[in-house]
Amino acid sequence: MAENNKNAMAGSAPAKPKPAAPVAAKPAAPGTAKPAAPGAAKPAASTGGVYKPPVERAASNPYKDSRVSDLGAWFQERFYVVLPVIDYLKKKEVPKHRLSFWYYFGGLTLFFFIIQILTGLLLLQYYKPTEAEAFTSFVFIQQEVPFGWLLRQMHAWSANAMVMMAFIHMFSTFFMKSYRKPRELMWVSGFVLLVLSLGFGFTGYLLPWNELAFFATQVGTEVPKVAPGGAFLVTLLRGGEEVSGETLTRMFSLHVVLLPGLLMLVLSAHLLLVQVLGTSAPIGYKESGMIKGYEKFFPTFLAKDAIGWLIGFALLVYLAVVSPWEIGVKADALASAPLGIKPEWYFWAQFQLLKDFTFPNGELVAIILFTVGAILWILVPFIDTKSSKEEKSPIFTIIGLLVLAFLLINTYRVYLESAAL
């Protein structure tokens, strides 16, 4: 009985479940995706069953959260494209050494060119480029227009100052060998700018239509006749066989339309190269420890440049008041040429060489020398291979000194001759 009751009680108790036998995981069938991990972001549904990750794009205005004033924020929101350029200028550095002051003459050349543009635009409001009215309008600007005399004097003096600064900038660049690799195109574009500046002086000289300008242009345009094809060039410049009202119109169009357009294009390329390639130090300065440090181009160097601009502006006003250019006498093609006719001072060296070459075909030889010399001068960066290797090249330094001596001595000779008259 007891045994039966015991079996009955055992039969009435629930049976314990047996542990499940471990089952090996079946490998996923090819082509089936694995389940995503918990919390993982699900990829966005895409057409065609191909998942394309989201493209991260830069903010349209990365400077919108900058801490600036309300006015600064207003400008940043509208001109934020320019801000990376300013940041680049802030990072650009200029080396400091005992010859650093030569760097400022390039900026002074640019400043005097800006003065040329501004004063020229104002003078254009009153000047009339015709044979009958050119001199009359010129006198009207000088005597009747309020501050017209100041505009004309500053225009004339800034033209001379621009050419002088361009020459100083060119020779300082040459003697510091700043034309070496990779700045060859900076030198080429700078030389082209100098030639265009001389073209400004030549074409603008006739515009007052006074006696001195008339006969100086007649002498100047006569020189190319001796060269092959020179007669065609002279006729093209003059608009005929002689200097006339047609010459005045052509010089005016070259002076205010063609040359400014060409100069602006070349100047833009030159300034871009200056910003990209930076400022060069003389050969050996960095290795010998002669560089005292570096200063930021913006705003430190530009602030010093601006001081030079203010001094240049004050000098222009001083020269306009103390040493004004004369009005002269109206041009008369039938009158005899006055004594001592000569071009502007920046053509005196070439003018004197033409006078010195009195032998047969001397003028042609002089023109050939000028042309060959100019070509060799513009190719200096490609000829001076030692400088490109950061090695000193005394031969080119001597050549530069000879060219400078030729320009200074011949210019002084013309000055002495004119002073004796």
From TrEMBL:
Superkingdom of the source species: Bacteria
Report the transmembrane regions from the record.
Answer: 101-127, 156-175, 187-207, 257-285, 306-325, 364-383, 395-415
InterPro entries, alphabetized: Cyt_b/b6_C, Cyt_b/b6_C_sf, Cyt_b/b6_N, Cytb/b6-like_sf, Cytochrome_b_N_euk/bac, Di-haem_cyt_TM
Task: Show where the Cytochrome b/b6 C-terminal region profile domain sits.
Answer: 287-421
Q: Which GO terms describe its molecular function?
A: electron transfer activity; metal ion binding; oxidoreductase activity
- Offer a single GO CC term for the protein: membrane
- Region annotation (Disordered) maps to 1-48
Record keywords? Electron transport, Heme, Iron, Membrane, Metal-binding, Respiratory chain, Transmembrane, Transmembrane helix, Transport
How is this protein situated with respect to the membrane?
Answer: Multi-pass membrane protein
Principal location:
membrane
> PROSITE patterns, alphabetically?
CYTB_CTER, CYTB_NTER
Stretches with biased composition (Low complexity) = 21-48
What are its GO biological-process terms? respiratory electron transport chain
Q: A Pfam family for this UniProt protein?
A: Cytochrom_B_C
Residue stretches making up the Cytochrome b/b6 N-terminal region profile domain: 71-283
Q: Where in the cell is it found?
A: Membrane
The identity of this protein, by name, is: Cytochrome b/b6 domain
Q: Which organism is it from?
A: Pelodictyon phaeoclathratiforme (strain DSM 5477 / BU-1)
| Classification of source organism | Bacteria, Pseudomonadati, Chlorobiota, Chlorobiia, Chlorobiales
